[in-house]
Amino acid sequence: MRFNVGIIGCGSITKFRHAPEYKANPHVDEIVFYDRNFERAQHLAEEFGGRAVARLEDLLTDPKIVAISDCSSNEAHHVNTTKALLSGKHVLCEKPLAISVEHAEEIIKAEQQSGKKLMIDHNQRFTKAHQKAKEILASKELGEVLTFKTSFGHQGPETWGVTKTNATWFFRKDRSHSGVAGDLGIHKLDLIHYLLDDEIEDVHAFSGALDKVDEQGQPITVCDNVVCACKTKKGRLGTASFSWTYYGKEDNSTIIYCQKGVLKIYHDPSVPLLVEKQDGTLVKYDLEQIQTNDNQTSSGVIDAFIQCIVKDEVPPVTAQEALASLKVVEKILASS
Ligand SMILES: NC(=O)c1ccc[n+]([C@@H]2O[C@H](COP(=O)([O-])OP(=O)(O)OC[C@H]3O[C@@H](n4cnc5c(N)ncnc54)[C@H](O)[C@@H]3O)[C@@H](O)[C@H]2O)c1
Predict the structure, then answer these.
(1) pTM exceeding the 0.85 threshold for the entire prediction
(2) Cα–Cα distance between 170 and 9 in angstroms, integer?
């Protein structure tokens, strides 16, 4: 089975993940690029092959396009993803699913109405160390999870996004809405839900715009740092920190403390996954390092999305799961 795919939004995530991974997928014939900035679509069509179109309708009405990635900025997801679903396309929507629970619920309504597949790009689930950690936790060889500590921080999105200036939409309340909470935080909230097979139901948080400024040199109006204390439905306690101001190497680490040992993920740069057992045994898993802004390897997400279409399976990250993480982001913002 081979078909065409469309991409809405031709910025950094399309350039580094969606376009190369679609290009490498054997089920994809042609990639059709759309951005409201047409030149960006043209550039990526030249770089990866495929073609650029000038109007969203050109993607939505093209019967050869079976699936669409929504890689537009956060505030546009509920418009683009909803339209794509209702036009009969399967959709891979970037995280966060939307800028509010209300918008996310509109998208989910469109998913149900359309009967098409909707997957959300919570790519942290797909890394080798996270997959192995999930397997170890599910086997209960370390007993039950008691507590956790997770962080995600880097130097900020102004050097990542296609604009490469402090005028980036990531810093704007009307477009990003939740700052670092919905940008980096939501990745780890989803990861904790996935690894622990549980959901954060209570959260106390502090957040602030500590250092980032907009293009006029004024403090940004979304948070660049969040610290939180969390309690899950199953009674686990944990802490989480998300930052755009870690001005050294990226921190993408998670530690899970269980009854019979500790799992350390991306904690030591030379050991992606380390298990410390209660009896002192250390088990080192020599797995691939996580993708970072400076180290782009295949995320596996696009292959998983295409596979769920080809095999007619439930997407490995559903909109309901993404909604659960978005609800935690809203609680973080309300609490702080
Ligand atoms: N899964 C991940 O690890 C990850 C990493 C980075 C970004 N993202 C997400 O991907 C999305 C895009 O981020 P990015 O880093 O590529 O941003 P970016 O600023 O580099 O690119 C966004 C592009 O979308 C286009 N765009 C915005 N709104 C549009 C609309 N309504 N119609 C058509 N085009 C539109 C812009 O012109 C721009 O070219 C965001 O939702 C972001 O949160 C996910």
Answers:
(1) yes
(2) 14
Closest CA to ligand 1's atom 29? 72
Instruction: Indicate if ligand 1 lies below 6 Å from the C-beta of 112.
Output: no
Q: Could you give the CA distance from residue 194 to residue 234 in angstroms, rounded to a whole number? A: 13
Considering only CA atoms, which residue is closest to atom 22 of ligand 1? 11
> What's the pLDDT at 286?
82
94 lines ligand 1 (CB under 6 A): yes
pLDDT tens digits for range 298-334: 889 999 999 999 999 999 999 999 999 999 999 999 9
Of 150, 179, 139, 77, nearest to 283 by C-alpha is 139
Q: Is 43 in the pocket of ligand 1 (CB under 6 A)?
A: no
Residue in 3, 27, 29, 19 with CA at minimum distance from that of residue 89: 3
CA 177 – CA 9 distance, rounded (Å): 18
CA of 263 to the centre of ligand 1 (A): 33
In the chain the domains, ranked by start, together with CATH numbers, are 3-123 (3.40.50.720), 125-295+317-335 (3.30.360.10)
In the chain, % helix, strand, coil (3-state, to 5) comes to 40, 25, 35
Q: 140 in the Ramachandran plot: left (φ > 0), alpha (ψ -120 to 50) or beta?
A: left
pLDDT by residue (tens digit) across 212-221? 999 999 999 9
* pLDDT computed for residue 287 by the predictor: 77
Q: What is the residue-wise DSSP string for 171-203?
A: G-HHHHSSHHIIIIIHHHHHHHHHHHT--EEEE
Which atom of ligand 1 is least distant from the CA of 163?
19
What residues contact residue 186 under an 8 Å CB cut-off, 6+ apart?
Answer: 95, 96, 122, 178, 325, 326, 328, 329
